[in-house]
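Researcher: I'd like a structural prediction for the single chain below. Treat it as a standalone chain; there are no partners to consider.
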Amino acid sequence: MKTLEETLFRYQLEKKITQQEMAAMLNISQATYNNWINQKSPIAPKYYPVIAKVCSIDVSPFASTLVVNCTQNNNSTDGNIQVDTLKLYQKFTQNLEEQILFLKDYASELQSKLQEKEVLIRTQQEEINLLRKRII
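Model: Treating it as a single chain, here is the predicted structure.
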């Protein structure tokens, strides 16, 4: 599976737009966009909704993917490693909470779309029934 960063880059190439234009569409800096597509920094889940809207893609497969980079200094004492680990878990928890919020919003959006489709189908079914009555 392609990463979200690869998907963004492919979208940019397909649309033949610059990094600056892409960044503007996503309401981020060009440097941030560059860091994303070069995988120098991960895309925070809070940006998933705007990416989904701008690129017309389903970002839900990416919402469950979380890459955590943990680098530890060889000279760290055990106490520092524990603090670093705690900070890492806090960041991981924060990212999971952001993903949960995104998924709840996304589920709500999908539910609304489903309801709209159901109304449309009922309306079309009623029209079909009226047409059938006219024919008979």
